[in-house]
Design goal:
Elements lengths: L4 H13 L6 H7 L2 E3 L6 E2 L5 E3 L17 H10 L3 E6 L2 E5 L6 E5 L4 E4 L5 H15 L4 E5 L25 E4 L2 H7 L5 H11 L32 E3 L5 E4 L2 E7 L9 E5 L4 E3 L22 H15 L5 E3 L6 E2 L1 H26 L5 H7 L4 H4 L11 H13 L14 H11 L3 H13 L3 H14 L4 H17 L3 H14 L13 H4 L4 H9 L4 H4 L4 E7 L5 E7 L2 E6 L8 E5 L1 H9 L4 H6 L4 E4 L2 H7 L15
Parallel strand pairs: 7-8, 8-9, 9-10, 14-15, 17-20
Antiparallel strand pairs: 1-4, 2-3, 4-5, 5-6, 6-7, 11-12, 12-13, 13-14, 15-16, 17-18, 18-19, 20-21
Helix pairs in contact: 1-15, 7-8, 8-11, 9-11, 12-14, 13-14, 13-15, 14-15, 15-16, 18-20
């Protein structure tokens, strides 16, 4: 679809407003280049494509009309790929996943930091490093934080996926958060992630143009190798393979379990994902717990105080490094003030009575931040981060009684369309607004027509064209992906979703309480309302005891307790617990095989399964 005159005018204005003559990022992103893969197409053992930069095509030159020039610039930077020397002894592979993998050379081998999303891309990254630096063994792993793009490929960098005696270092509570990150709301988050990352879109100028933070998440085999060393406090030091490391704990910033660290012998500072070359998310569009922008800024200030003056280079697990002490101080100071500004200004306005939606329209970054490329909203945005700060302090309700008890979308849509004179009248007026470039208003009103009657193809096409123009204009990659994916689905384009390996590698580390909590949120409360019984559980390997209780429509669990009146008592290995409860294996079969023991009413588990309401991984977003 071609761009409208209004979108074209917007793109031109962007080129006039921003300092495109500043090319320092391109110098830094290519500094230390050593080698690249001849072909970036990476396949799994079954032939499935895990990674491929080819479909992005040629990204040299000026931005095409269908891509915001600022986003085009960020995409050009994100698509620079290969092995790079950060300083002698520290190397990064960038452009083989959404994240970057860093190698620190020690006395006997190499320490790997954040081995990407997938085993296949991590293995390719390590092979590229070894093709230049020699076949050095991996002597340690470090996970900066608990998001999967920083540990999922670990199995690809250790021999046969088995770390053996290799130390694995992570921040305290890493394993708990790594497993639970998407457990409770995982289905909804995964569905919305297809929009956020543009996984259903074609790559290229009319589709997904990276996701701002990196090209895209890879689509390969996941792994989770549990940490063997926990970092528990700021100032803690380790020596791994002769390399001295000083750690800084930063919980509740970009991730609930995260840490920065410093290499004194290299004068190098790793900032994890707390400072990258874009504005990050205070809450992600896929959904997450709201992060603490105030604490985030505070930890960045602590990083400056602890490490900046003695650092010659700062690198992170996304994007490219920053060299020079003065540049590092300037970079981290602006990143610090970016989050502090959004937090403080949102609070200033909300205490004057403005709502999150209003504040998002009012706040602009000061010139010193707005003109810094690394503060631009390629991944997070000022708009949705302001709303996130408001949400953290005030919740969903804006205080207006009219918004306390609104109709759900389909019902309100029918009423709006009727009030506005019917669908034909709405579409006639909406087309006029479209022609004048008032796309936000067209999206508002035509969405009502679509939700009132999803079979109205004229409305769906107008809304799709509107989303397309809005997507083309976005500087923020995740906003672009949302708009363009919405347009694609409105047109009924069936595109297969990602076919990556399931998360069984992660589920192997789920705790007993997390298993029961995950089942509890699937209980149909009304169907369960008149049932009342309990089951005693014992984990065979550890003797750990749990009471699972169904009462008042709630399935609850209590650790370290059994009930005398339980209808069933089961002893089962941890590895079989989740499979047993969801019915992949049966209790009768496990008992017969001698894997489990049971006393009481074996049918109690069937009673629980009959109450489970399965999630819908393909629920509608742009249609009712």
């Amino acid at each position: 679809m071609s761009v409208s005159e209004h979108t074209a005018a917007h793109q031109h204005a962007v080129t006039m407003d921003l300092p495109f003559d500043d090319e320092q990022d391109f110098v830094d992103a290519q500094r230390g280049f050593l080698a690249a893969l001849d072909d970036t197409l990476i396949e799994a053992t079954d032939g499935r494509v895990v990674w491929d930069l080819g479909p992005y095509g040629d990204t040299s030159g000026d931005a095409p009309a269908t891509v915001n020039p600022s986003l085009w610039r960020q995409a050009q930077l994100n698509l620079i790929h290969g092995l790079f020397e950060v300083v002698p002894g520290i190397y990064q592979v960038r452009g083989l996943d959404i994240s970057s993998m860093t190698m620190i050379e020690g006395d006997e081998g190499v320490i790997v930091i954040d081995p990407l999303v997938s085993c296949e891309t991590a293995a390719a990254a390590l092979a590229l490093y070894r093709s230049v630096r020699g076949d050095r063994p991996v002597t340690a792993l470090i996970y900066t934080h608990s998001h999967i793009d920083h540990f999922g490929g670990a199995g690809g960098v250790v021999p046969n996926g088995d770390p053996g005696d290799i130390p694995i270092v992570a921040p305290e509570h890493f394993l708990e958060h790594a497993v639970s990150e998407n457990l409770q709301a995982g289905t909804a988050m995964s569905r919305r992630a297809t929009y956020m990352y543009g996984t259903l879109l074609p790559r290229g100028p009319e589709g997904q143009m990276t996701c701002g933070l990196g090209p895209a998440p890879s689509n390969g085999t996941l792994s989770l190798l549990p940490p063997t060393i926990d970092i528990t406090h700021t100032g803690q030091e380790l020596v791994l393979d002769g390399v001295r490391i000083v750690f800084q704990m930063t919980p509740g910033t970009e991730a609930p379990a995260e840490m920065n660290f410093y290499f004194p012998d290299f004068r190098a500072l790793c900032m994890a994902e707390n400072a990258t070359h874009n504005l990050h998310n205070v809450v992600t569009l896929r959904g997450a717990l709201v992060r603490d922008a105030h604490a985030w800024a505070g930890f960045l200030d602590e990083s400056i105080a602890m490490f900046a003056a003695v650092s010659d280079v700062s690198f992170a697990s996304h994007h490219w490094p920053t060299w020079g002490t003065d540049n590092i101080v300037d970079y981290l100071s602006k990143q610090r003030d970016l989050y502090a500004y959004l937090n403080d200004q949102t609070l200033r306005y909300l205490n004057r009575g403005f709502t999150g939606t209003e504040i998002a329209e009012m706040i602009e970054l000061p010139p010193t931040l707005a003109s810094s490329w690394h503060c631009r909203g390629y991944y997070g945005s000022v708009s949705h981060n302001v709303k996130a700060v408001y949400q953290r302090y005030m919740g969903w309700f804006d205080g207006n009684p009219a918004h306390l008890w609104p109709h759900p979308p389909e019902e309100v849509a029918v009423r709006y369309v009727e009030f506005m004179g019917g669908a034909e009248s709405v579409l006639e007026k909406a087309q006029q607004s479209f022609d004048s470039g008032d796309y936000r208003w067209v999206a508002e009103v035509v969405n009502h027509v679509v939700f009132a009657d999803p079979t109205n193809m004229e409305a769906r096409e107008l809304l799709a064209r509107t989303y397309t123009q809005m997507g083309y204009a976005q500087e923020n990659a995740t906003w672009r992906n949302f708009f363009l994916t919405g347009a694609q689905e409105l047109r009924g384009i069936e595109v297969a979703g990602p076919t990556g390996q399931n998360a069984l590698a992660l589920m192997a580390h789920i705790s007993v309480t997390q298993v029961f909590d995950a089942i509890a949120i699937r209980i149909d409360g009304m169907k369960a309302g008149d049932q009342h019984f309990s089951i005693n559980w014992t984990i065979a390997e550890t003797g750990e005891q749990h009471l699972l209780r169904l009462e008042n429509g709630v399935l609850s669990n209590v650790a370290n307790r059994h009930a005398d009146d339980a209808v069933l008592s089961v002893t089962v290995p941890h590895s079989q617990l989740l499979l047993l409860i969801v019915g992949v294996v049966t209790l009768e079969a496990l008992v017969e095989q001698g894997i489990a023991t049971a006393e009481g009413d074996l049918g109690a588990l069937d009673s629980i399964r009959a109450l489970l309401d399965p999630p819908d991984p393909k629920f509608s977003i742009v249609l009712p």
